[in-house]
Amino acid sequence: MLALLSVHHIAVICSDYAVSKQFYTQVLGLEAIREVYREERDSYKLDLALNGQYLVELFSFPETPARLSRPEATGLRHLAFAVSDLDATVRGLEAQQVAYEPIRVDEFTSRRFTFIQDPDGLPIEFYEV
Questions:
Q1: Which keywords has UniProt assigned to this entry (predicted)?
Q2: What is the pLDDT of residue 74?
Q3: Fewer CB atoms inside 10 Å of the end CB: C or N, the chain?
Q4: Total number of domains constituting the chain
Q5: What CATH number does residue 50 fall under?
Q6: Local structure of 18: helix, strand or coil
């Protein structure tokens, strides 16, 4: 068995860097901790943190293919954030004019959750803990 400690980061490839950068920093409120332009790849890489913890790498590449289906495509199914008050989260989404799915209840834990989509359609979950 491997001695894994924790999840280090999640990498997301976007189709429009400026739009996704605004979404992840202004809508979700993640903190940009390092931004690099890699000229040889015509690619940006933005490292983002949540509460001071490195969490997401946002990449841009020229001519990236679209996600084939949602949500059951091979690969990352969704990115989930723990929230303490789902109602407050939903109010914050409404204030940012971000559409969200109806609130559901996890059948195994009885916890409430909802989903939104990032600018490229990646499902993002908010799970009340």
A1: Metal-binding
A2: 65
A3: N
A4: 2
A5: 3.10.180.10
A6: helix
Does the pLDDT at position 87 exceed 70?
A: yes
In terms of domains, do 56 and 81 share one? no
Domain housing 51:
8-63
HEC string for 61-111: CCCCCCCCCCCCCCCCCCEEEEECCHHHHHHHHHHCCCCCCCCEECCCCCC
Burial class of residue 49, CB neighbours in 10 A (0-12, 13-18, 19+):
middle
Kindly list the distances between the CA atom of residue 97 and the CA atoms of 23, 59, 110, 118, in Å, as whole numbers in the listed order: 12, 25, 27, 13
- CA–CA–CA angle 108, 114, 116 (5° rounding): 140
The answer to whether residues 84 and 125 belong to one domain is yes
